[in-house]
């Protein structure tokens, strides 16, 4: 009986096509006040995460985004501007824009600078939740450039040795063009589990891995209802990396996040993020076709290594996500009951047809 109940709870409430889900998300964001263009950008980025299997950064975020818009923390009509520019870099003041809007703007700017100078960097000051960073670095890789992105946020992860949140699960993404198998994409958080994964586990009741989170008193827990603070991956390495991302993004653009939050300043508790995107024009430093061939050669060499008997297959960064993408593009995106119910409630409140 318990097994059948578990199986029933794991069964998705709906399986929705990419096009239908993007249309629904676009309608929600337009109703929330975004321009049609910006609403479509945010919808595409969130649904892309679902297609890749990164459901923690997909449409489950829609209710939170709407909440941030209604609270005035996410600006539905931002006045994004370039406040500083050099031959190879730009500083973008995002005016609390939806993260996907600010990051697509930044990625385009970094690529433009890279085309002019060989390498381009776009710093983003004062955006909001940036969503899955892999979307932006992959876009650059598909244009033949190598790319790297960071984003920084308020402290939600324990610093190594501490029993309270002191840094963020700041994500990192790196992508490079590939050959026959396509680009290679790394997209990871600096925590053992991302904060989004923790929130998803709270919705579904799924236990967290041992040693991945603390409760509000700083005690280890696997109970998703009690878990409040993710732990850093690889201990001091994960927390150190997160700290340096805060330095390279927030402190560089004079918009500190962690210190303001920990010291309890008036702006410290307000939702805001900073980010950085770098693009490298491979054609400036060698033959792009040769680069792609060498990526394929490297992938083949890694996958040909002697395999651990407990490992079914040696995977390259992004390979599992790409397989999920292809499958979900064909078969549709499964929505867990908790996510479906949240979206249905939001749709009802906003007067939008559910997947209509």
Question: What is the element layout, followed by pairings?
Answer:
Layout: H1 2-10, E1 14-16, H2 18-31, H3 36-51, H4 62-71, E2 81-85, E3 89-93, H5 99-117, E4 119-127, H6 134-142, E5 145-152, E6 157-158, E7 165-167, E8 172-176, E9 184-188, H7 195-204, E10 213-215, E11 227-230, H8 236-251, H9 258-262, E12 273-281, H10 288-303, H11 319-331, E13 333-335, H12 337-350
Parallel strand pairs: 3-4
Antiparallel strand pairs: 1-13, 2-3, 4-12, 5-8, 5-12, 6-7, 8-9, 10-11
Structural account:
- This protein has 356 residues and is α+β, with helices and mostly antiparallel strands.
- It has 2 domains: 1-77 and 332-356, Malate/L-lactate/L-sulpholactate dehydrogenase, four-helix barrel (Hypothetical Oxidoreductase Yiak, Chain: A, domain 1); 80-191 and 232-318, Malate/L-lactate/L-sulpholactate dehydrogenase, NADPH binding domain (Ribosomal Protein S8, Chain: A, domain 1, 2-Layer Sandwich), CATH 3.30.1370.
- It is built from 12 helices and 13 strands.
- It has helices spanning 2-10, 18-31, 36-51, 62-71, 99-117, 134-142, 195-204, 236-251, 258-262, 288-303, 319-331, 337-350; strands at residues 14-16, 81-85, 89-93, 119-127, 145-152, 157-158, 165-167, 172-176, 184-188, 213-215, 227-230, 273-281, 333-335.
- A hairpin with a 3-residue loop joins strand 2 (81-85) and strand 3 (89-93).
- Helix 2 crosses helix 3 and helix 3 (36-51) packs across helix 5 (99-117).
- The radius of gyration is 20 Å and the shape is globular.
- The two termini are 36 Å apart.
């Amino acid at each position: 009986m318990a097994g059948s109940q578990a199986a029933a709870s794991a069964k998705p409430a709906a399986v929705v096509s990419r096009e239908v889900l993007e249309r629904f998300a676009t309608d929600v964001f337009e109703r929330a006040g975004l321009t049609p263009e910006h609403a479509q950008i945010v919808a595409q980025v969130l649904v892309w995460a679902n297609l890749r299997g990164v459901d923690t950064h997909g449409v489950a975020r829609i209710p939170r985004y709407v909440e941030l818009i209604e609270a005035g923390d996410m600006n539905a009509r931002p006045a994004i501007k370039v406040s500083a520019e050099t031959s190879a870099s730009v500083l973008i003041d995002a005016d609390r824009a939806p993260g996907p809007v600010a990051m697509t703007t930044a990625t385009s700017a970094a690529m433009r600078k890279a085309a002019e100078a060989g390498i381009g960097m776009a710093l983003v000051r004062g955006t909001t939740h940036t969503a899955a960073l892999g979307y932006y670095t992959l876009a650059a890789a598909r244009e033949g450039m190598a790319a790297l992105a960071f984003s920084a946020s308020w402290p939600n992860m324990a610093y190594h040795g501490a029993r309270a949140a002191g840094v963020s699960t700041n994500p990192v993404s790196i992508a490079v063009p590939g050959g026959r198998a396509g680009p290679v994409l790394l997209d990871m958080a600096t925590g053992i589990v991302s904060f989004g994964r923790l929130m998803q586990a709270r919705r579904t009741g799924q236990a967290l891995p041992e040693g991945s989170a603390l409760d509000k008193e700083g005690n280890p827990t696997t109970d998703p209802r009690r878990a409040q603070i993710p732990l850093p991956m690889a201990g001091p390495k994960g927390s150190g990396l997160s700290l340096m991302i805060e330095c390279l993004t927030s402190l560089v653009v004079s918009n500190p996040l962690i210190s303001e939050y920990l010291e309890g300043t008036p702006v410290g508790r307000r939702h805001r993020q900073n980010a950085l995107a770098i693009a490298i024009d491979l054609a400036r430093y060698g033959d792009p076709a040769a680069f792609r061939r060498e990526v394929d050669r490297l992938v083949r060499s890694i996958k040909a290594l002697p395999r651990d008997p407990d490992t079914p297959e040696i995977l390259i960064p992004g390979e599992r996500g790409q397989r999920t993408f292809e499958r979900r593009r064909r078969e549709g995106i499964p929505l867990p009951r908790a996510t479906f119910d949240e979206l249905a409630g939001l749709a009802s409140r906003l007067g939008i047809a559910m997947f209509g």
